[in-house]
Amino acid sequence: MALRKIATLGHPILRQRARELSLEELLAPETQRFIDDLVETMRDANGAGLAATQVYEPLRICAVEVSNNPRYPYKPRVPLTVLINPVLTFLTDERFDNYEGCLSVPNLRGVVPRATVLRLLAWDREGNPIDREVRGLTAGTFQHEVDHLDGVLFVDRVQDTRTLTTWADFERFHMADFVARARALVERMGG
Ligand code: NI
Asked: With respect to CATH, is domain 12-189 assigned 3.20.20.80?
């Protein structure tokens, strides 16, 4: 396994639409090694998720994992989930104002409205079908990662640019209010 470099805001790879994989491509040893690298890189950087485009591979692969994350201490746990060719369908009109950050957008956070219930269709890394409902704050995490595969960054979805903040000022001025709202959402939605 190897750590990959993470592309940052301004690099054209982050604006590319990643392409679908065939089952044969997914099962190729090279792709399986890439997935190992993606997961290792996500964990090394304390990311809650990482998309292939962020490590310079324009393929529809992303990973999500949350376990006692120091960058996002309020997020509910999510076991390691690798998604291949994911498709999200929103199951509600409700949106939660989520304060997001991104490994490709260093030292910036901002509020993004995210659907609170969605249906996730994808393959796992072995090509087995995934079909599940994702709720609450976790639904926002999946939307953020799948956006990456379409060349969309969270800053594109910030509606009120006055919410943009450095991480230090997030903790100083916005975190208490946000964590209270996030905890209430997790309690209500179970995720
Ligand atoms: Ni990101």
From this structure: no
